[in-house]
Amino acid sequence: MLKKITSDSYRLLSPTLSSSSRAEIERITKLINDHPYPNQPIQQILKKHIPLSSLSPTIVSEILGRLFAAHTNGLKALEFFKYTLKNKNPPPNPDSFEKTLHILSRMRYFDQAWSLMAEIKNHYPDLLTLKSMSILLCKIAKFGSYEETLQGFDKMEKEIFKKRFGVDEFNVLLRAFVTEREMKEARSIFEKLYSRFSPDVKTMNILLLGFKEAGDVTAMELFYHEMVKRGFKANSVTYGIRIDGFCKKRNFGEALRLFEDMDRLKVDTTLQILTTLIHGAGVVRNMVKARQLFDEITKRGLVSDCGAYNALMSSLMKCGDVSGAIQVMKEMEEKGIEADSVSYHSVFIGMMKSKEFGFDGVCEYYSKMKERSLVPKTPTVVMLMKLFCLNGEVNLGLDLWKYMIEKGYCPHGHALDLLTTALCARRRANDAFECSRQTVERGRCVSDQVLRMLETSLSSKDEVEKLEELKRKIQKLQNLLPPSGTLLI
User: Fold this and answer.
1) Fewer CB near the terminus (10 Å): N or C of the chain?
2) 82: Cβ–Cβ under 8 A, 6 or more apart, which residues?
3) 250 φψ region: left (φ > 0), alpha (ψ -120 to 50), beta (else)
4) Which of 310, 312, 373, 316 is nearest to 345 (CA)?
5) What cellular component GO annotations does this protein have (predicted)?
6) Closest listed residue to residue 352, CA positions, set 335, 339, 370, 364
7) Averaged pLDDT for residues 300-323
């Protein structure tokens, strides 16, 4: 099924890596994230501490995936990627380039993103992929206008890829609008360019996905019938999109009917579709059906992965069976499938709502997560930080902050807002200042709310001087950020 590219799209560390490679990846990630950019040049540090001979394409890709998930300043990631380009044997791989482009465009560094595209075109044209094109166009559609997105598409055709685009590139353009739920624009482009690009079933599935993501099941079904009338045959992706649409609208009966139609019409059932249905069973609190669908995976000759187990865990949590969900996690790990950050997120949510486990249960599994050196994703960090701070456990909030920093991450700004508020309320402004300093020195700005709290809470002469120095660093950092209204093309 088509997916929006997010930080969750990039796994943190491949399970096939050796322990020494994992350690090296963590060391380099932390080195880059901790570097006080832009106050000091980073290339010299990279050259001193990271031998080019140690940077295989896989390791470079994994490091950039970690930097993406850690919300590292995009310019630091760009400097690292450019440093790896000096390693001619072996050359970089497309995945590393795509991740660098994603980091830059997410931070709206569009000038640097286009410059990098041009550099890759001149020296490493094999790295230019449909995915790299999609990453940049999706961000232009998100932050820019309809016209700028079309201009970006035109620029890629004439200046970057330098070839006449076909239906594959047309699908990328449509996907950019669909990703941002701009269905009016997507439909307009479809009608305008239909005759030039001769759409395929993937084109139709992208538009179908757009209506589903917009939450308009009626429009989704109307377009499905239009798709059939135009002569396109529905495939497993088509059915997966429709099933997900009905599941999200709590129309689980219709989703099951479509599932039965797939069997009748001999359309291949995928693991993704079964996972979607397990989630759907949880939405309507049908625990029995969730387990039946999970068992169906093996019966159909498919192999359950972490996503399928997470779907079952989530469904059990929604039904209030926290103990059952925890047992599922144990079964998963017994079969050699490691729980990931999504697994723990589901457990935390379930325990927070449970009278049996509650706050103590969350703390127990938070400790287990740290013992496994698992780094939670941003939504989990913010959720835990809020839970700790609102329950008067500010030390746990500070512990979570330090854990993320030690792992080479700079937690999301909302997590800092929550922690700073809790620390200042308990007259621990120096701890709040230290967290803010760590954020700024890693190339990230802090909110005005945090600065106001620090101004109110720090009163001694030395403290005021430290705060003024922090403000100067923030100003220097802001000078690197693109000004509002910057043209994207």
Assistant:
1) C
2) none
3) left
4) 310
5) mitochondrion
6) 364
7) 94
Average of per-residue pLDDT across 386-404: 96
Instruction: Please state the separation of Cα 335 from the chain's center in Å.
Output: 27
Among candidate residues 85, 86, 122, the one with its CA nearest the CA of residue 100: 85
- Helices 110-123 + 74-84 axis angle, to 10: 10
How many CB atoms lie under 10 A from the CB of residue 58? 17
pLDDT at residue 23 in the model? 87
**Whole-number Cα distances in Å, 187 to 133, 177, 192, 396, 437:** 20, 9, 8, 49, 47
Q: How far apart are CA 464 and CA 469, in angstroms?
A: 9
Q: What is the pLDDT of residues 111-156, one digit of tens each?
A: 999 999 999 999 999 999 999 999 999 999 999 999 999 999 999 9
State the residue for tokens 């310019």: 75
Instruction: Give the predicted TM-score (pTM) of the model.
Output: 0.86
Q: Is the pLDDT of residue 5 over 60?
A: no
Taking the domains of the chain in order of start, what are their residue ranges? Answer: 19-108, 389-489
* Vertex 385: Cα angle to 379 and 390 (nearest 5): 125
Share of the chain above pLDDT 90, in %: 74
Statement: residue 208 has pLDDT above 80: yes
How far, in Å, CA of 38 to CA of 212, rounded?
A: 43
Cβ atoms of 108 and 478 within 8 Å: the answer is: no
Q: How confident is the model at residue 488 (pLDDT cuts 50, 70, 90)?
A: low
What is the distance between the alpha carbons of residues 464 and 452, in angstroms, rounded to a whole number?
Answer: 12
Place of tokens 């330098």: 162
Can you read off the two tokens belonging to residue 88? 């001619």
CB 357 within 8 A of CB 351: yes
Q: Which two tokens stand for residue 121?
A: 């075109």
Within 10 angstroms of residue 229's Cβ, the number of other Cβ atoms is: 8
Tell me the per-residue pLDDT of 38-77, one tens digit each, with 9 for 90 and over.
777 888 899 999 998 889 999 999 999 999 988 888 889 9
Q: Which SS3 state, helix, strand or coil, does residue 370 take?
A: helix
Cβ–Cβ < 8 Å for 346, 314: yes
> Percent helix, strand, coil in the chain (nearest 5)?
70, 0, 30
CA distance 328 to 133: 40
For residue 456, give the nearest of 471, 447, 467 by alpha carbon: 467
